[in-house]
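BUG: 3D viewer hangs when loading the predicted structure for this chain

Environment: internal workstation, default settings.
Expected: structure renders.
Actual: progress bar stalls at 90%.

Input used:
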Amino acid sequence: MLNEIELYKALKKLFGFNKFKGLQEGVIKSILSRQSTFVIMPTGGGKSLCYQLPALVQEGCAIIVSPLIALMKNQVDAIRGISDNPGIAHVLNSSLNKGQVKEVMADIVSGVTKLLYVAPESLIKEEYISFLKKQKISFVAIDEAHCISEWGHDFRPEYRNLKNIIENIDNVPVIGLTATATPKVQDDILKNLGISNANVFKDSFNRPNLFYEVRPKTKNIEKDIIHFVRLYKGKSGIIYCLSRKKVEEIAQVLQVNGIKALPYHAGLDAKTRAKHQDMFLMEDIDVIVATIAFGMGIDKPDVRFVIHHDIPKSLESYYQETGRAGRDDGEGYCLAFYSYKDIEKLEKFMSGKPVAEQEIGQALLQEVVAYAETSMSRRKFLLHYFGEEFDDVNGLGAKMDDNAKNPKKKHEASQDVVKILEVVSQTNETYKSKEIVNTLIGKVNAMLKSHKTTEKSFFGIGKDKSDKYWMALIRQVLVSGYLRKEIEQYGVLKLDSKASSFLKNPTSFLMTEDHEYPEEGDSNIVANTNAGGAVADENLMLILKDLRKKVAKKLNVPPFVIFQDPSLEDMTLKYPINIEEMQGILGVGEGKAKKYGKDFVLAIAQYVEENDILRPDDLVVKSTGTNSSLKLYIIQNTDKKISLVDIAKSKGLDMSELIDELESIMFSGTKLNIDYYIDEILDEDQQEEIFDYFMEAKSDKIKDALKEFDGDYEEEELRLMRIKFINEVGN
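Structure tokens produced before the viewer hung:
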């Protein structure tokens, strides 16, 4: 084993560093002393150097098991960069042909190769196992070790067999490394790798240089993303989407708006993927758009922002993906767009899986919902999830998230905390959060009936408050340490040791209520494009609202028929002073601009002149041709009175997505005749009732209409009737 001086000399010679970062030195010494080692080190903590340096200075070849072909290539390139011999590091995976495999094996036999990166699927092959058995192996490192746990965010069944394969090859030290692992996953990894006696090194998960923000996801998301990316002109960023189709769409819309961006997903061939990755690393492009499901493994230090177009399926995924920002300790902005519809989509994906897998998936998803909807410090919430305490007043990065920067008002809730703890206790700690909330608000269901909870004196003890209130408070009580989740039982709530003293002597507990995010389908709740989420020019907004009221009164229609709030907000950002510019405003097309725009552009022009306002000239967002061709297809087919079901099917849309498109067409001022379809699903009296509601309503929000009709109509029916109403009254 190297002594201290030799170790530092090797660090300087091989990697050019004078000192180790964080826990690196301890980890390396553990590996060099041939101890099994487990490393939990956040993305950007220098995890790869922990096994690279010991591999380079020891006799034999280290096997590095990694699930990501892209990451393997990246690391092999980096290691080859510090050596004159390219054979020093190799990959062994499905991307190689027979000739290349022979070359790899020859280099290992000759002792040239110090690091062999292997995909777990390749390591299963008998020919590779029998070959490696005969070689001098220094150790086996399992990178992304969370893949071994079904509670991990990237569970890979083939990882489960690694222990047997390693034992088959040689009796060598095993090194497990991960950037994201909850306490439950950590235990799983140690057990499944058979290294329960390993030296464990756990670094802090806190990345104080990252700013976390969650915004509501609305129909205006493409514009929001473009405006955000433009703030980082010439800087590197990653955008994550749920589907390959969305990756392609977002990449295309960025390109037509002058942003150098490329897609990256498993549907692209290996050559294209490698090319796009290299262009990102070499800064030929600024933005890479990738699927959440497909790990990129891009080790680029200066990524300045990570955007989640769709919320990921677990907080581990989210943490790992956001961790790709600011690895050089410079600023990193992590922006996630959240809509509960995303959660519902992820739940649908899980529906065909085995029940146990669904249970785990649901438990992980609910943590994501809790993170997105919480109004407490996001950093504190995130670190608590990984089993780490955080001082949200004095801790490093304490003000680096949207909730900490703009805190909501708090109120005293100690008596409500007592109610929660008592209900958990009196129901014998058998329920998850949802059933505790149902017990508090007195909502009867089969489970509560079967346990006779509905007959207890405490049933309905909190019915004076909403289910959302109680769910928000439970989340905050969990983070405060009075409750804990029993992971083995898929999230059953248990009293923690602090709970009994709180019940005996309740102390102050200040609660902030969770954010309520609007529904994606609601047309008039589009997020503002300025970073703060407020109206760009509040004085102009008041003028425009007043003008809208006058115009609406004159025409005897509700104000939202003229222009909706998001359209007015967009006007306060872009200051359109002619009809052509007005057509570029969110939710305002040619028809609406010509019909209602004149008074508004005159008012804005006057305001701009009086206040010496410098108008932005780069805020027009161009759309790709694909979207306009879809709109044209819909208009032509509704004119022919083709069933909406058939139109949706022919374009691979579900009905909700088709209605999104219909609304977009209608809100831009183009007339649409869908009466023929509405007549099939609603009779005359029903149509009249909904029409009258919208005529009197203060807002056209669908959730308000659903509340008003209390289950009489489906959301789809109300959205279609809103289209009919605005067509007839406004367009």
